[in-house]
Specification:
heterodimer, A: mainly alpha, two-stranded antiparallel ribbon, 14 helices, globular, B: alpha/beta, Rossmann fold, 2 domains, 6-stranded mixed beta sheet, 4-stranded antiparallel beta sheet, about 25% strand
Chain lengths: ~325, ~270
């Protein structure tokens, strides 16, 4: 009940925001939604299924570049380009899922880490710069008003992100509540017992990888359209690590938690950066230190993430927990 | 050499049919022979006890039936079908369920969710139908929920149904594992040391539970157990292993009196 109320409030806040928020803040909240979608995908894989990925920035990049190339070079509208790029991500993730079956735990983390390291290099590769624009990147036209309604670019981007996010949250919720989600968690908790119960672990793990990459791809595609620009530097290692930070801070194996994770990775570095305004150029290292300190405090206060913290608060206060 | 072929005693009554056939199974791990040409059969609706000292190969045999291990030689058939061609995750769909010696529950899930995983193979719903919560997927989920609820009742777990299994005492967790195994609607139930860690009365209750399960659900049971009293009480047939070799098979009375069995047990106990 309390959980439904929280979802309702969050949705009401989101729907109302284009009507009162400034363009810049709306843009920031579009980024929050984009990150939330990517985190949701990563949480399905890492939180629910126990497959550690340090390379989701690479799938985000495929989605971003895929959509950008389809829009710029092939003249497709964004509403076709993003789904096609996301489908490519699904296939890429599904295929990567097969070698991933052979790696456990930290070895998988390293294999995906390699993806994150390689992605910016490959994107800047000269041999394909007729498509990717090389290290210059690609300029992506921003979407105009949706359905011919009077709205600014920031507003249409926000609506686009909100519609995609709502649909993908509902789908993820359906998946984790049912047979599929139970199978994912069963594989994470005890793979041998899961298989003895008739769960095809290899199939579920590869599909989970594909779905997870698809979510990252949708997020990447939306990001390309929202920012209006893709370049190799925007999909570096830092992005992959930020995703991991997001799901841990938000709460592993939690759907709602990724919203908190997304807020954290969008706003905390931003506010930390503003500290240099007060302390001058001599405090260049300060934002990183503050970000790191906040993360440590966060983990100390809420080792199960913000979702876990809320869950235990709800239990303590006697509300029905979910 | 086929030890135990000349076992004393015959099975009581004629078996209705062979459900599980262990056909000359040999398992080697490097230089160690964990199972050596083991042959026996489990009939439909039969309770078969599998005994032997530690390291005799009982759990290894279970793991071969569950397809966790591949026999080096020989095969196991279920309803006449060779299991060597069945992928591990399909064994449950054939109707073979198991419990584990040291419990293998999904520790972050509730009792109810654990039992529902047991019903995984039982339902069919496509990925897309589930993602979009289409009527077919909802119906499948409702069936799973109902099946799990009835098993929770049958195994007297109503009081703890929404607790995380990690928080529960050992004896209760064993009942959860049984409920989860029954959710497969098995024709053959493999129980790996179900009496371990139970007190005297609990073992008595377990014995009647196993017999009553067979009556209620018309299933066969293959039971690995150290608790000799329990095995002798419930089994129609007892198979004794020692160092991977079958040393005796037959009625409980005959196997108990078999000189090799006495030697194996006294040897290991002394």
């Amino acid at each position: 009940m309390a959980v439904r109320l929280a979802w309702g409030l969050a949705l009401a806040f989101a729907i109302s925001s284009p009507f009162w928020m400034s363009g810049y803040h709306l843009y920031q909240f579009s980024q929050v939604l984009i990150y939330a979608i990517a985190l949701l995908g990563l949480n399905l894989l890492t939180g629910y299924n126990g497959q550690l990925s340090l390379g989701h920035g690479a799938f985000f990049a495929i989605g971003g570049y895929g959509a950008a190339i389809l829009i710029v070079k092939f003249g497709l509208p964004f509403w076709l380009a993003i789904p096609i790029a996301s489908a490519v991500c699904f296939v890429a993730g599904f295929l990567f899922g097969f070698p991933a079956l052979r790696f456990g735990g930290l070895y998988l983390a390293l294999a995906t880490f390699a993806l994150a390291v390689a992605a910016p290099q490959l994107l800047a590769f000269k041999g394909i710069d007729f498509l990717t624009g090389g290290s210059q990147g690609l300029q992506v036209p921003k979407p105009g008003a949706l359905l011919g309604l009077p709205m600014t670019t920031d507003q249409s981007v926000f609506w686009l992100c909100l519609i995609a996010a709502v649909a993908l949250f509902v789908i993820a919720g359906n998946l984790v509540r049912g047979r599929f989600g139970r199978a994912l968690v069963a594989i994470r908790d005890h793979p041998i017992a899961a298989e003895s119960m008739g769960v095809n672990a290899a199939l579920y793990k590869t599909i989970c990888f594909g779905v997870s990459a698809l979510y990252a791809g949708v997020a990447g595609g939306l990001d390309a359209v929202a920012v209006g620009f893709v370049s190799p530097e925007s999909f570096g290692l830092a992005l992959s690590l930020a995703f991991l930070v997001g799901i841990v801070v938000g709460g592993l194996a939690s759907i709602g938690g990724v919203l908190f994770g997304a807020l954290f990775i969008e706003f905390v570095p931003n506010y930390a950066d503003q500290l240099t305004v007060y302390f001058g150029e001599n405090a260049k290292a300060l934002p990183g230190a503050v970000y790191g300190l906040l993360m440590i405090l966060m983990m100390a206060a809420a080792p199960m993430g913000i979702a876990g913290l809320l869950r235990s608060l709800a239990r303590a206060s006697g509300l029905r927990s979910q | 050499m086929t030890p135990g072929e000349a076992a004393n005693g015959a099975r009581p009554g004629t078996p209705v049919g062979v459900l599980l056939g262990v056909e000359g199974v040999t398992v080697r791990f490097g230089g160690v022979t964990a199972l050596d040409d083991v042959r026996f059969e489990v009939g439909t609706r039969e309770i078969c006890g599998l005994i032997g000292p530690n390291g005799a190969g009982k759990t290894t045999l279970f793991n071969c039936i569950s397809r966790l291990y591949e026999p080096s030689v020989g095969d196991i058939s279920f309803e006449g079908r060779p299991l060597s061609r069945v992928p591990r995750c399909e064994v449950a769909k054939l109707g073979v369920a198991r419990t584990f010696q040291n419990l293998a529950l999904f520790s972050t899930m509730t009792v109810r969710q654990n039992v529902r995983v047991g019903a995984h193979a039982f339902a069919r719903a496509s990925f897309l139908a589930e993602a979009l919560a289409m009527p077919g997927a909802r119906r499948a989920e409702r069936e799973i929920a109902e099946l799990a609820d009835s098993l929770i009742e049958e195994c007297r777990l109503q009081g703890v149904a929404d607790r995380l299994v990690g928080e529960l005492p050992f004896g209760v967790r064993k009942r959860v594992e049984l409920a989860r195994a029954l959710a497969i609607s098995p024709k053959l139930l493999l129980l790996d040391e179900p009496a371990a860690g139970l007190n005297h009365e609990e073992v008595d209750a377990l014995a009647s539970e196993i017999v009553s399960l067979r009556e209620r659900r018309a299933l066969s049971v293959l039971l690995v157990e150290h608790h000799m009293n329990l095995v002798m009480r419930v089994s129609d047939q007892v198979v004794a292993l020692d160092f991977g070799k079958l040393i005796a098979k037959g009625t409980p009375a005959a196997v108990r009196a078999h000189p090799d069995v006495i030697r194996a047990y006294l040897g290991s106990a002394a």
